[in-house]
Every structure is written in C-alpha cells, then in structure tokens.
Amino acid sequence: MEKNRVQVRIGGATYTIVTDDDPQYVEMLAEDINSELRSVSNANPTLSMTQAAVLVALDNADACKKASASADNLRVQIKDYLEESARAKMEVEVARREVERLNREIADLRQRLNNR
Fold first, then answer.
1. Three-class SS string for 28-68?
2. Tell me: the pLDDT tens digits for 29-64?
3. What is the DSSP letter of 115?
4. Cβ–Cβ contacts within 10 Å for residue 72, how many?
C-alpha cells in the first residue's frame, strides 16, 4: 500500500505525516488536536504551547486508556452473554426433547386407555 504524505499544522508548527491512513482522516485529527490546544491555552493563558500540548496528550492518553478498558469490558460481557445464550439454547433443547417424550408417553397412555 502506498504511503500518504500529509502536511498538517498543529500549534503553529507544520508537520509532515507519512501514513497509510486517508489524508482527510489525518487532517481531521490535526484539527481536533488544534481545537484542544486552543481550548487548553484559552483556559490557561500562562501555559506555553509545549505545556498545553502535554496536557492535551495526557487527556488523549487518558481517553484512550479508558476507551480500551471499556472495550475490554464489553468484550468480556459479550463473551459472557454468548456463553449464557449457548447454555440457554441447550436447556431449551433438553426441555423440547422432554416435552416430546412426555407427549409420546401421553399418546401411548391414551392409546392404552382406548384399547381397554
């Protein structure tokens, strides 16, 4: 796959990103980071661009870790639900067979009664 070279401006500096990702996606990421940098800088005007960038990076790392933990939790829940579903299907099948057996037994008993 051909690499894309994407130039973006983040925090007033220009970066050339070499990536397999779509250039518009990389530009969107840069816009998001710039927006976060502006927000942090506006809320804390005494911070340098580096300090604001570190706070944005920490916030993004935190969000990434939490999203990863949430995804792991969802995977565990889905696995549990699938196992529970498989158990329920087996129980339904056992119950269905028991109903069929009981229906045969009832039919057999009715036939015996009719033969008397």
1. HHHHHHHHHHHHHHHHCCCCCHHHHHHHHHHHHHHHHHHHH
2. 999 999 999 999 999 999 999 999 999 999 999 999
3. T
4. 10
| Cα 112 from Cα 94, distance rounded (Å) | 27
pTM for the model: 0.69
Beta-ladder partners of 95: none
Closest CA to 36 of 6, 66, 60, 7: 60
C-alpha–C-alpha distance, residues 26 and 20, integer Å: 10
- Sequence length of the chain is 116
Q: Are 36 and 13 in contact (CB under 8 A)?
A: no
The CA–CA distances, whole Å, from 21 to 32, 35, 84, 106 equal 16, 21, 39, 67
| Beta strand ranges found along 1-116 (DSSP E) | 4-10, 13-19
Distance CA 69, CA 56 (A): 20
Task: Please report how many Cα atoms fall inside a 13 Å half-sphere around the Cα of residue 93, on the Cβ side.
Answer: 6
Coil vs helix vs strand at 10: strand
